[in-house]
Amino acid sequence: MIVVIGLACVVLGLVIYYSLWHSGKSKLKFGILVNEGPYQHQSADSAYQFTKAALENGHEIFRVFFYHDGVNNGTRYAIPPQDDRNITELWSALQEKYKLDLVICIAAAQRRGILDENEAKRQGKDGDNIAPGFRISGLGQLIEAGIESDRVVSFGD
Q1: Which of 16, 38, 82, 126 gives 87 a disulfide partner, CB atoms 3.0 to 4.6 angstroms apart?
Q2: Would the pTM count as exceeding 0.70?
Q3: Residue 128's domain is classified under what CATH number?
Q4: Residue 9 appears among annotated catalytic residues
């Protein structure tokens, strides 16, 4: 885990250095795109560490958008072993602390059985499984993040 944190910090430093050098700004607004699930690929952890480091260094995160298998970061029913990190809880805690906009793509979520309360009712399902702090919306939210942010950083394939 220390290697992951170190790598995320190095990547953050390089992205911010390059971005600041070319933009002339002291602080940046980032959009984050997470394309991979929490326990199948390193990119979910890297996205979390990058986002956390950016916020701790005074940068703004306009939105974190979860797409493809990345939507699995937002299910409250994932239960990792006790000796493993719970990436969903980490995202939820970060959202609460910094009031982040954590958006799950509706089409990708439906394909993977992730529903909020409204979508569960609309689809005739008896319950929702979205984690606290996450919300479901469409691809327009990703487009808006690209327009409103200085940089969009993508994690995963």
Answers
A1: 38
A2: yes
A3: 3.40.1260.10
A4: no
